[in-house]
């Protein structure tokens, strides 16, 4: 039996993965086209019909858990999740389990509990007897409210009566449980309707007064179980033999069983997988999450949902039991095109089957987490993510990126200097250099930081900017069928739409460039490889524009000058940001430190530094939209012109003093000016609490000065760190932020 039914799936491009899934018969032609053209994204107008007060649509990556064999049936499991390690962990666990026969699952009938609360019941024991005697009448009334559900084999099937005695802070109450088989619907609204409908009748039987009537999310009559057995020899990992790994997982499982603090994290890992499937299939993941944790706390203490033991034959045996009540039919599930497609991808035929798949996914996720913990430790996965960031900062190009990351992790020295060393080593091994043929066919646009002059530069003041060791590279590949735009790191791979009204934000500049260069009728594939995170104030949009322009210039022999490239990139920035200063595209084009002043033409001159200067760039992780911040300053200036003009003139004066400090290499003075400048930018209301936190962290850990860079509102900040960059970076990462060292000059 093959250990993987999708070999090397993770190495394919997004388009190749979609093609592969289509070729396996899991996608229709219509679904394939919708994915390729980016049409599975929920439209904002459609979203407005689903919930109240809609202002936009938030997306999560949809990945595929591969290699799942459950009850001898193959599954591709769609998951919606943002955490990088989850999909890889799921697919690995499923592959390991598959080689041993896969997962076995079972489930009880899809029963939901509706609760009807009564108080002031004169004779509770007698009321209980009366309810049991007239149970059929109550059930018939409930079922009359949903005859279609009854026709499908579901409906209200039983009653339970619970009496809670009066306590110090509570009255005596009776609770009637209405047990409802909801078939393939999640059934929340159905159960609530039934509870409402029988409330008055129950009052008349018991003589009490009904208060709450609502479903319970502790769906412990819809229990789902999954089991797996993995031979010890299949568990060996990185110097650990299989028996060591097995025994470590068993001990870790015992820890979670007896210790509530450990159980909380243990179960969180399980729900990483379960919730991701619930999200992808349009189910109420909050209800599933609440029910699972309540179920884990049903005994004397909160405990683990899974159990791992050593089987008689020496294998590792795992099992999980938890309540999962989900649906595969109903308006809310079918109204979102992504959800409808994901349900079809999963090939489940009933809500019970989906619940069983989710249980297997939870057990798989738990296995991968425990295996990591008892071998290399969970931190190794996070080290890989950290290594990707450092490799990007050090300038690893797409063709060597993965190799550099692997070698960085292996070295244990995940630092920029080490990444630069590894990059040089890898290029030597591959016979590459910066001028190799493979690399030479790619054009580049540079990222940037603004040292001084943000926002003031829009109003004619000077600004100082410098490139960062992050770039966007692009190339053009001949294509026969329209224009394709591919940006792998941003998750973009689709045909460029010709209708401007339907174009997404990243399509508009590409369309503008094609038009201005007279290439709109040519077919091509525009491949863009970005090392710059989106909307982080590092000049990503300008770098993309410059890279694409230069790639077209190279491919079609247009012989554009740097000034022409810069001018066209500025047009793209106008589309992206409304009223840009032009500094981003200028740095992206020329790739050197410069002093910039807006004008027609702009006043630009190179900045020669006596020696390089080290900065730390901290990323908030919150998108900073330049157009929005520029508009905010403009609106504020219109209301308080004198106040805002004073602050803008102050920023310009600081910029002039900073130029002098840079030329004299007066770092103490430069840091002081950065701090004062941040105060004025705060006055312009373009900072954010994330930026302020990063700035404070930098200053507390020895940075000579710190300020936001770019538009603000999120994005990035810079800290002047001539000698202590590592300390500042470590502190920022310890607070949950990304950070990197850059050297200018």
CATH superfamily heading of the largest domain: 3-hydroxy-3-methylglutaryl-coenzyme A Reductase, Chain A, domain 2
CATH class of the largest domain: Alpha Beta
Helix content: 40-55%
CATH topology of the largest domain: 3-hydroxy-3-methylglutaryl-coenzyme A Reductase, Chain A, domain 2
Largest beta-sheet characterization: 7 strands, mixed
The parts where pLDDT drops under 50 for at least 5 residues are 431-439
> How many domains?
5
In the CATH hierarchy, what is the architecture of the largest domain at level 2?
Alpha-Beta Complex
How would you explain this protein's 3D organization?
By secondary structure, the protein is an alpha+beta fold. The chain has 5 domains: 9-104 and 234-321 and 328-377, 3-hydroxy-3-methylglutaryl-coenzyme A Reductase, Chain A, domain 2 (Alpha-Beta Complex); 111-216, Alpha-Beta Plaits; 381-438, no CATH class; 439-606, Ribosomal Protein S5, domain 2, CATH 3.30.230.10; 613-744, GHMP kinase, C-terminal domain (Alpha-Beta Plaits), CATH 3.30.70.890. It is 46% helix and 21% strand. The strands form 5 sheets. Strands 11, 12, 13, 14, 15, 16 and 17 form a 7-stranded mixed β-sheet that branches. The protein has a 4-stranded antiparallel β-sheet with strand order 3-8-10-9. The protein has a 4-stranded antiparallel β-sheet with strand order 5-6-4-7. Strand 13 and strand 14 form a beta hairpin. Helix 21 packs antiparallel against helix 22 and helix 24 runs antiparallel to helix 25 (667-683). The model is unreliable at 431-439 (pLDDT under 50).
